[in-house]
Amino acid sequence: MRLRRAPILMKMENGQSPKEKYLHDFTYHGKELSFTEAKNIMFQYLDSSGSVDLEKDANGIAKIRLSNPRFKNAINVKMMSDLEEITEKLSQWTDCKGAIVYGAGGNFCSGGDLNMAKKINNSYYGYAMNIYIGHILDKFKRLPIITVAYIEGAGALGGGAEITTACDYRLMCNAVDTTAIGFVHSKMGIVPAWGSTARLVSIMGVRKTLDLLLESRLFSAAEAMDSGLVDGAVATMADAETWLSHKIRADVNVIRAIKRMVQCYDDSPETVRMIESRIFAPLWGGPANQAAIEKHLKHKR
């Protein structure tokens, strides 16, 4: 099935080229993709480096480690495949109460892997990436457990910041002044790709989300807490575990029931994700995004 293609005029009064007109439609006009189709496309670029690792403890807490230290845990297809498998395992672990997502080597996540971005830098692949990764994070968000992102080191940037919104809570390490969280997408010529826009509106409200995405700046722990983006500041991973343990004192079935009940009031996430994917796709691989990738802007602070 193909989406309706808007007419593209070859000659325009304002001087825009057809490609610019296509971009300014803010709508992807290519082939719709199912999750399975998108996964098959992304698996053509499956990298052997990096992993996402799961550790369970006897108290019903899972630790999920993003591990690609060479690139400050930047996310690639292999890592998202691992997260998909971990999400399935957690859905079947009936004694699980909560999970902490953190990064290896003292850093959380610097975003999407730049090498991957260069290989799939057009709207069709951008749409496939959005469908694939967005679906996995949506599924992780719906787990009937309490999830926390522990942000430390260089912090959570771009796609890394998006991953934190798939968690119920966000904690930042206050032991290092340079730890930050930043939705830096506009500097890369794009918008959030993995479902975080709707989650941000739910977390912060419309106006603060607009400010966050338009300004595209880095927030310290104190600023992120003041804005409502982050729920607390702690010094160590052990402190994050203690923080979570206070949230999950109730019986496991009560905790899981509360999580499911609260999620019933989400505003049609499937519809929001569908709209987001069509807005994001034409920006991915567009002139601003290509220029930013060539300048390696994502890794500059």
UniProtKB/TrEMBL annotation:
One GO cellular component, as annotated: cytosol
Pfam families assigned: ECH_1 (PF00378)
Record bears the keyword Cell inner membrane: no
Key words of the record: Lyase
Gene Ontology BP term (one): fatty acid beta-oxidation
CDD domains xref list: crotonase-like (cd06558)
Transmembrane as UniProt keyword: no
GO MF annotations in UniProt: lyase activity
Protein name, per record: Ethylmalonyl-CoA decarboxylase
Organism: Aphis glycines (Soybean aphid)
